[in-house]
Amino acid sequence: MPDLPAALRGGVAKSDITTDDPGVVIHDPLYAKALVLDDGATQLAIIAMDVVAIGGICDVSDDFLPELRARVQRELGIPGSHVLVNASHTHPPGKMLCEHDQQVERTFDAVRRAQEALEPVRVGAGKGHEPRFAVNRTVRLRDGRGWTIRHANPCPPDGEIAELGPVDPEIGLLRIDRLDGRPLAVVYNFACHPLLGVPGGKITANFPGFASQVIEDSLDAMALFLQGAGGDMTEVLYKDVTRARDARPVGAMLGLSVLNALQGISTEAATLSVVNQPVALPRRTDLDDRIAALEAEQAELLASLRFTSLNFRTFLPLYLRHVLNPEHPADYSYRYLHEEATADETLRALDAENQGNLDKYLSNIAAMERMARIQDRIATYRRHDAINREAGEPTVQTEVQGLRIGECVIVTSPAEVCAEVGLNVKRASPYEHTFLAAFSNGYIHYGPPAADYLAGDYEVTECFLAPEWQALFEQAARDVIARL
Questions:
Q1: Considering only CA atoms, which of 189, 176, 173 is closest in space to residue 268?
Q2: What predicted TM-score, i.e. pTM, was given to this entire model?
């Protein structure tokens, strides 16, 4: 008989990776948290980082992941391909991390200490549910197009909104307990952009940090947040202008939902497996056409601004009069009755003229809002066109990684995968507890559904992949899961 794997062991540790700049105001620290698991035959490391992305943009360079993986393999004996590094995608007000060499050093040190702390553990998988604060930020319009809710552009007119896009309110859960039943770690997977921040624009880990703090204070265990298919997900209060933006209540809400769901999860012995599959995703070739179409639309909107009588000073009081009393905006109602009795149409004619001017001014505002959005999209398309041209090759070389921990499966993507794609991966998996850890092991910008390329907005604009990427990625995910 073949030798059976030794009992599963696990260890955790974390390192503070916040900037050392004394001029930066920090609300709460940023961490690299490491979970190392070893079943005697396979060893793996899951690293959850409070960063925007693993390379590509902001403070983490493209050299970080290969340097970290190489060092973990060389000095700790964990294969680099068995290291999963996920970005929570917390958004900074500016520079928020320590320098590159310290990022590598401190993150490696967390993995080293986690490995040194290995002890026998049991694991269990489950799921929670948190539908209250996340919303698909790209609303579907009545004309079939999408409009993404962002601070960079106005929201669409209310009357043009038809429906919301799909969401994934599931919390994927992996519980790791010591043999005496005390929790050692909780890995939780949830999909939503962390954008609210805290009042004052201070450095923060955002809702993942606050949720993890709630979990850790309750359990005396380490909580590791894995960002899910949150590419088109944001907090429902993201554009609220009636209160200060604050991620703390949102984080507490998620943390409590995790704690509630953990109570129903039992743990048992488990084995591990890891699969890495390279995949070449095609780059877009339609950006010149997209830019030309937007420029044409912008020119049409600009031409529509002619023949405007009002300015803002005259528009606002006139608009208020028409809103306060649409039937009698010019004067008291008895004046209108008097005109009717004398066959006079002066006030009615004035109202009609003013209403036409108001409609024109409101039309100009709508055109301005659309033009602001179009200008942002054109600039973004040009930036991504430059990225693709500089790459000098038609595909993006990347990987899909799969980890099986007992009956739990984690599949990765370096893209900001949108909710629909994440849901597809989960539905196609034979494992009940399947997580998609997007924003992992690199960064290749957005991964929207192919069907959104004609209708979509920001996530499609920010994507340098051709729509065929979706089918290739989902097939690679299915292949990886089958090999686990």
A1: 176
A2: 0.93
